[in-house]
């Protein structure tokens, strides 16, 4: 008799994710929840974990999502992966519409992590826009939950490195929001330097509908 999906969430991976992301920059939501961007787009993508990047005043972005399964199985792997990719595309599209002053050349640097957990194994992917309407999925990291003394030393190190990879991407999303949500340039300096007002980037020319 093996562990259930809930066992992996509650007993193993839940405590690790909660301990690592335990600060005021993030809010973790467990248990088949739907994000606001997905609800807004009428997409019923329930995910097992959502890591929300926050500030003292607001929730900034659904920065990462994860699906959990009790074991690796071909059908489950690809179904979960497709769901997380489509939900993340929705989050990426929605986020770009909130940072309208982002320069076009910086759009490709807006990267969202995706986490897939199957039993004791974790894989991290990223989704970004490489060009107008061209979304790229890339493998980023993988790590295992240490299940014996031999795997403990390197297993813990790999977990920390993997979670650090996720966090670095989330921090970049927070930075992009602060930098490009509005035109922060000084109006007096613009006059002195004879520079023009920043223009909004036509995000609709870059993104495509999820379904």
What is the gist of this entry?
This protein has 211 residues and is an alpha+beta fold. The protein has helices spanning 5-20, 36-40, 74-96, 149-180, 187-193; strands at 26-33, 47-54, 59-69, 112-118, 121-131, 134-144.
Would you write up a description of this structure?
The structure is a single chain. The chain is α+β, with helices and mostly antiparallel strands and 211 residues long. It has one domain. Helix content is 39%, strand content 27%. The chain is built from five helices and six strands. The protein has a six-stranded mixed β-sheet with strand order 1-2-3-4-5-6, sandwiched between helices. Strand 4 and strand 5 form a beta hairpin. The longest helix has 32 residues. The chain is globular. The termini are far apart. The mean pLDDT is 92.
Features:
alpha+beta; 211 residues; 6 strands; six-stranded mixed β-sheet; globular
Q: Alpha-carbon distance between the termini?
A: 39 Å
What's the mean pLDDT score? 92
Strand content: 25-35%
- Uncertain segments: none
Enumerate how many helices there are, as a single number. Answer: 5
Give the overall shape, derived from the CA principal axes.
globular
Number of domains: 1
Radius of gyration: 19 Å
Task: Report on the biggest sheet.
Answer: 6 strands, mixed
Q: What percent of residues adopt helix (DSSP H or I)?
A: 25-40%
Order of helices and strands: HEHEEHEEEHH
